[in-house]
Amino acid sequence: MAVVFNDLDVAVHRRYLPFVVNQTFRAVPLFVRLLTRSNIVLRGGLNIRQPILYGELPGGSFSGMGQFDTSYVQTHAFAEAEWKSNYINVTIPGTDLAKADSDIEIIGLLNPKMEAASYTIKKKLTNQIYGDGSGNGGQDLDGLKNAIDDGTTFDSYLGISRTTYPWWKSNLDSTGGAFSLDMVQNAYGLATDGDEMPDLIVCNQTIWNKFWSRVQPAQHFISQAHADIAAVGFQGFEFNKAVVVPDNYCPAGVIYLLNTKYIQFVINQNANFIWTPPKTGTAEWAYIRQLIVMCNLIVTAPWRQTCIKNVS
């Protein structure tokens, strides 16, 4: 049976793990856009340490022998995120494997388990990226709910206080109300600064339907600028320079307007969707493995993002 277990491990690494990873990142609009931007990155270290640019250097106009301001000005802070770990367990009883008459039947026992693993890891990660990091005793990812806040609910994000550093606040419309294009346009403007503006707007299907019914027919098509979203089969349309995509993992009554240039999904390079080795010391006769990923979602410029809550 040890040989059978080893064969299953080979099948997982050659056939199933690439499928699981591919399906995970193609099934979530935010992940698709982060892939396009190369903002799904591998790192190591005790934690995720990200420099944040927030200040300007001294400078300005002068004439003749006018003196320069040579004083030191702090322009960067460091945001720190902890690694968050997720696992999916796969167990196949040894008695089931013993009853299989061929390699095809053995792999047939693994196939539905890996399909379930693919669906489950996608669901776990997606639910967490829309959360606030407090789930499961604070072991969940630091999600958008915490990242995109004005300090009213979450003062600290990635170790930086929004009370101490007001520039770390996001744009937040907590009033919401009946959906309107004016509501979205105002939120879009709050996150716009010159050529910096949201490129991805996410909401659940109910709000997306209302959005769709109010935009011009000409906007119901996705241009080449958002071909990455269309290529994986998502329905969507454009609003200003952003693509609007439904994601039913997005909380009800919430619209996120995201500048994904400043969002990263960071994966630990030593725990990048790994398949655990055989277990020792277990009492069961079974093939027992786990799929593990250490990662976190970080927003490096919360002030470039907007969240609208309580939309009806």
Descriptive keywords:
alpha+beta; globular
Describe, in plain words, how this protein is organized in 3D.
The structure is a single chain. With 312 residues, the protein is of the alpha+beta class. The chain has one domain (2-54, 81-308): phage-related protein like fold. The protein is 31% helix and 24% strand. It contains nine helices and 15 strands.
The name of the CATH topology is phage-related protein like fold
Average pLDDT value? 90
Number of strands: 15
Judging by the overall fold, what is the CATH architecture?
Alpha-Beta Complex
Beta-strand share of residues: 15-25%
Instruction: Supply the number of helical segments.
Output: 9
In helices, the fraction of residues equals 25-40%
Secondary-structure class: alpha+beta
**Largest beta sheet, briefly?**
6 strands, mixed
How many distinct folded domains?
A: 1
Q: Kindly, what is the distance between the CA atoms of the first and last residues, rounded to a whole number of angstroms?
A: 57 Å
Identify the CATH class: Alpha Beta
- List the uncertain runs: none
What's the Cα radius of gyration? Answer: 23 Å
How are strands sequenced across the largest beta sheet? 7-15-11-8-10-9
Categorize the overall geometry: globular
User: From N to C, what is the helix and strand string?
Assistant: HHEEEEHHHHEEEHEHHEEEEEEE
